[in-house]
Amino acid sequence: MTAVPQTPPRRRDGFPGQRMHVLPRPLVEQALRTRPLSQLLVTDAGYFPRASTHGRARTHGAPQHIVIVCAAGRGTCTLPSGVHQVRAGQALVIPAGLPHRYEADAEEPWTIWWMHLVGQQVPDLLAATGATPDQPVVGLGDPAPVISLVDAILRRMERDETMASLLASSGAAWHALALLAADRRTIGRQQPDPVAATIEHLRANVSTRIPLADLAGMAGLSVSHYSARFRRATGYGALEYQTRLRMGTARELLDTTDRPVASVAAQVGFSDPLYFSRQFHRVHGMSPTEYRSHDKG
To answer: HTH araC/xylS-type domain: which residues (predicted)?
Structure first.
């Protein structure tokens, strides 16, 4: 009779090279009574390198929201919605109170940076990442900055547990969640996002005014569908987004060169300096000349 291989027991922690810090729960309660930390507080943070046999199950969920960033390897997370794969360059977001089980892959165990969060603003910040209980995994265009911020959180918590350190950790966590939201990538998409491709095209051609119909055609979408998706992605209409890109380049030229306003206008695609000045004033509340003379920095 052939013996059936036994699955190694799962471990919550205890991995070579790991780092982890958990705040005492009385300190958590105290911190949440202060106004800044009541909005967002990091209660736990850690780093598990190549965490073979790592796994954790919570049948009633965790009291905190959990964010896990996978730097290498892979793992899975089981939620009521099903089993979700987590790979390098992706983040797993688990809301507080949601039953779950997550574990490292047996052949390619993950390396993860993780944090537990509480606070009044955390649900809204997590919602901005696009993660949901049905799709809890989000892709990261560039995971390094997010990982660096979780490392900064952990280093600050390892340093001490003063209110100053808790506040610094909170600020870094807020920044990390903002990056997750701003730089997220849809998981499971077989083709590149056509709207994202047109946004990159606009950034690479700031001085060229591209009609809305042309952008929609590049994306293979109707004008109305493209416009709605573009606004969801950027918060602006496509034409206004182009204007703001051009004004951003104009600001840089005004700050770093002595070129005349007419020359700056031409550089960013405005043949009429007066029209450029009106658009600049609409966006910035002052003329290009006033902006250049205004104290900055």
So the answer is: 196-294
Whole-structure pTM value:
0.69
pLDDT along the chain (297 residues), means of 10: 53 88 95 95 95 94 97 95 94 97 95 97 95 93 89 93 96 95 65 77 88 86 91 92 94 92 94 95 94 75
Query: At a CB cut-off of 8 Å and minimum separation 6, what does 4 contact?
Result: none
* CATH assignment, 19-185: 2.60.120.280
CATH 2.60.120.280-classified regions of the chain:
19-185
Which residues, at least 6 apart from 103, have a Cβ–Cβ distance to it below 8 Å?
Answer: 10, 54, 55, 56, 75, 76
Paired strand residues for 247: none
How many residues comprise the chain? 297
Q: Dihedral, CA atoms, 178, 128, 110, 100, nearest 10 degrees?
A: 140
Asked if 50 and 15 count as a contact pair (C-beta separation under 8 A), the reply is: yes
Q: Which CATH architecture has domain 194-293?
A: Orthogonal Bundle (1.10)
Contact of 65 with 94, CB cutoff 8 Å: yes
